[in-house]
Amino acid sequence: MTEVKTARRTGRPPLTDRTALLGAAREIGFPGLTVGAVTAKVGVKYSTFYRHFPSLEALLAALVEDVLEEAKFPEPTGPWQDHVRGTCSVIFELFSRHPGLAAAIVRLPELPRRGIEAYQQMTDLMLEAGFSPADAAIGANAALETVVMPWVTATDRGAGLVRRRQQTTDTPVALDERIRDAIGETLDDPPVKWTTSKIDLLIAGLELRLAG
Fold first, then answer.
1. Which candidate, 210, 164, 209, 204, places its Cα nearest to that of 84?
2. What domains sit in the chain, N to C, each tagged with a CATH number?
3. Which Pfam families does this one have (predicted)?
4. Buried b (16+ CB within 10 A) or exposed e, 104-137
5. Which terminus has fewer CB within 10 Å in the chain: N or C?
6. Which has the minimum average pLDDT: 29-43, 86-100, 160-174?
7. CB neighbour burial string for 26-62, b if at least 16 within 10 angstroms, e if fewer
8. Sign of torsion, CA 204 205 210 212?
C-alpha cells in the first residue's frame, strides 16, 4: 500500500495575530499602553503590530470594546430610576477594575458601542416613563457623565478625589464650614458614596421635572 504524504506548507508561520496583541494590551492595562509596550510583551516588531492595528488609537478602541463586553447592564425593565442607578453602578465597577478606562473612552473619537447601548436603554425607559426627548437625552447623559468624571483624572491607585478633599481645607476663597464638612464626609476614594449621592440628587431632580 502506497503511503500518502501530506504536503508541507511552506513559508514562515505568522508571528502573532490581533487576538494576541489585544491580550497583551489587556495585561498591560490602559495607563501604560503604548505600541512599544505591546510589541515588547508579544516579542514582535512594530511592523507586525501595524499589520493588525493601523494606530495605537485603533488598539485602544478595540481594547475599550473588549473590556466593555464584561459589563452586564440591567435589563431595560422596571422603574427608570432603578435602571439608571443599576447601569451607573455597573459602569462604576468597571472603571474601578480597569484604571484608565474612563480616560480612554473620553479620548476616543467615537463612542464605544456598549456605551451607546447603555445610553439607549436608559433613554428608552425614560421616554416610556413620560419624559420629553430632550429631558431623556440630557438626563441619561448627565448620569453617565457623573460616573465618568471622577475617573477621568484617576491614577492607578484611585480616583484622586482624596487629594481634592484635602484641598478644600485650604482654598483661595474660603468655603462655608458646613460645605467643607459635607465634602469631607462625602468625598471618598474610590468615590462610591460621592458618585451615588450625585446620581441620587440627579434622579430626584428628574422626578420633579417629570411630575411638573
1. 204
2. 18-66 (1.10.10.60), 70-211 (1.10.357.10)
3. TetR_N (PF00440)
4. bbeeeeeebebbeebbebbbebbeeeebeeebbb
5. N
6. 160-174
7. eebebeebebeebbeebebeeebbebbbeebeebbbb
8. positive
